[in-house]
Amino acid sequence: MFTFAPESVFTINQNRCSRCARISVHVRPEYARKIKQILQLHYESGLSRRIIAAKAYSEWSVERFLRWAGDIGDSTKQVVSTLLYKKRHPEQSYRSVLGLLDLAKKYDRQRLEKACHRALDINSPTRTSVESILKKGLDKIPSRSTDETEKQTELALDDHENIRGDQYYH
Asked: CB within 8 A of 101, min separation 6: which ones?
């Protein structure tokens, strides 16, 4: 991009000495006249892109994201809800939620739903966790819930000379 102001392109350079007598006049070359047109086109195209992006951003809402996520599944809706309400203002999470919902394009909707379910199971409902689950294919592997796994009630340690026991501390 150009670092000069467009109006400076079309001025005539006049070199003056200390007594304000004109020494020389330099007219810009022909291509310099087209630079203003090029700059104007770049400005207008950038401006129109920003206007379109701002309009799309203004159409986003919490309800719209929750509806979109609800169309995919309940787990996805729960992850999106968690993302939206984790920040102080839900608008701060819009990009993250969009990234999560766009994963349905790269992977299918069922895989996204399973990955969101797994992310909720491991208590990590974030976009990066869901994306990692999808990349590694963990959504295809059935997850074990806490009911199915055996909980260890005692720590099974063999007797060893370095283990002092509870009587040592009394």
From this structure: 65, 68, 69, 72, 76, 80
Taking alpha carbons only, the member of 141, 83, 139, 136 closest to residue 109 is 139
Element (H, E) at 25: strand 22-26
Q: Where are the domains of the chain?
A: 6-58, 61-140
As a whole number of angstroms, the distance between CA 57 and CA 40 comes to 25
Residue type, 84: L
Is residue 79 within 8 A of residue 69, CB to CB? The reply is yes
**What pLDDT score was predicted for residue 128?**
92
pTM for this model (two decimals): 0.56
H or E, element range at 127: helix 127-136
Task: Output the CA–CA distances (angstroms, integers) from residue 24 to 15, 28, 118, in the order listed.
Answer: 6, 13, 76
Centre a 10 Å sphere on the Cβ of residue 154 and count the other Cβ atoms it contains.
5
The pLDDT tens digits for 56-86 are 667 788 898 899 999 999 999 999 999 999 8
